[in-house]
Amino acid sequence: MIPSKDCTTLLLFLVLGTIGFAQNSPVADEIQELTDRAWEYTLDGRDSALVLSERALDISKKNDFPLGEVLARESIGLFHEIVTGDIEAASEQYFSAIELCEKHELSYLASMYHT
User: Fold this and answer.
1) Structure pTM?
2) How many CB atoms within 10 Å of residue 41?
């Protein structure tokens, strides 16, 4: 089920909106932009959401940006959960993101448990 427009806006802020407060760098800004756009595409059922999320993941890994990797994996998980209905693939991404939060002691961990 795809959330309503009001619910979508709230969910987008809660799920992806915290990166802007956590980091203030060009890499963080780029990850924010990619995951925000990916979320919009996910809600439209567009495969390009996965491409954007994977790009965010690659950039995060190359720049040693664990929070970005967490957000990218969460975005990939949301794509699989909402668009493809593949809960197993979504869960793998969520669990990987949770492990990264724990490893790097990221405060975003609480948000991951709500995904």
Assistant:
1) 0.79
2) 20
- In our burial notation (b when 16+ CB lie closer than 10 A, e otherwise), range 42-59 reads bbeeeeebbebbbbbbeb
Sign of CA dihedral 89, 92, 96, 102: positive
In 3D space, the residue among 94, 93, 76, 92 whose CA is nearest the CA of residue 84 turns out to be: 76
DSSP H/E element including 46: none
Query: What confidence tens digit (pLDDT) does each residue in 13-55 have?
Result: 444 444 444 457 999 999 999 999 999 999 999 999 999 999 9
Nearest to 72 by CA among 41, 36, 26, 109: 36
